[in-house]
Amino acid sequence: MKKSIKDLSVTGKKVLVRVDFNVPMADGKITSNVRIEKEIPTISYLLSQNAKVILCSHLGRPDGEPNMKYSLRPVFEELKRLLPNRKIYFCPVPFGAEANKMADELQSGEILLLENLRFSPLEEQNSDVMARELASLCDIFVFDAFGTSHRKHASTVGVSKYVESAMGFLVEKEVSTFEKIMQNPERPFVAVLGGAKVSDKIEVVKNLLDKVDTLLIGGGMCFSFIKAIKGQVGTSIVDDNRLDFCYSVIKEALNKKVQIVLPVDFICAENVDDVVGTKCYMLDEFPEDKMGLDIGPRTVSLFAEYLKNAKTVVWNGPMGVYERELFAGGTKSVAELIAKNKKCISVAGGGDVVGAIEKYNLQNKFYHISTGGGASLKLLEGAELPAIAALSDK
Fold this sequence. Notes:
By secondary structure, the chain is α/β, with parallel strands linked by helices. Helices cover 34% and strands 17% of the residues.
């Protein structure tokens, strides 16, 4: 069991918090502050305990060198807006003499935000030099950036070697939620998987076969399963080198009495821009010259039979090319079906799924929406997250 922020005495201490301020930007402005808002509970708790709070994060991919396009200054301004009664300072470098000086001058109840960690190539190299530098800024390290917990970087894994460390509230909720659904789920347990490729979710599928009662498969990945059992998929996206895997999964599911449910109809077109030629086809009518770009209404009704009675639902991956309105129906319907089931513990993860849930304004209808796509996939695989594994034990 890893230490939580509440297991530490932080009063008067310098606390370095690895947060996730990797927010979407356009023309130098933040287009969504959700990730910043999700860190406020951890920050506010530390401030209430009179800690000296030092925040660090990455933003985008500046390729290991300073690039003002990826500066955290807009985040600094947003923090001042969200916490108007607190003194907040900005350090123009992620570590070094200036950062140390500003950290030493920080008073209890004040905040210091460091510049983008990825302005140094040492961050993504998990450099011991940078880890020591970051550790020298603080007395305690709190990790609260779940979205980076599968990365072995200086600010995620490295710092914990040199200073007492613990989970922040956001990470603690993510870990406890996935432990709950993967170790002791209420049943029936239904997993909904989508997205483009089977290869992205091989380990997830393997792990879920030992956990779930039903696996609903949509999105581009369903065509590999359909082709594996000799179904017609036209020009749809297929992982041809994963067909044997798909067939073996279907066989294994039968042995384990896990139901695998594949789509029975599709919204098809020649391509995503083919507005005129878009039409719904049953699986046995699938045209040779078209591709499936969304699940159809009969599939939605089929999936609904399992989702309405589920007690635990985990969803990763959209049902179609939901960015296009013509092919968004399946993803929207699945989101609404899960949201409608108020008796189930519903957990959604992955950038596309989270984006869809927010697009349809259903975020308050889910038990938990994961803040980390890659990290949540790792937990669904049953894998260890390096940044969390590195934290201090209770």
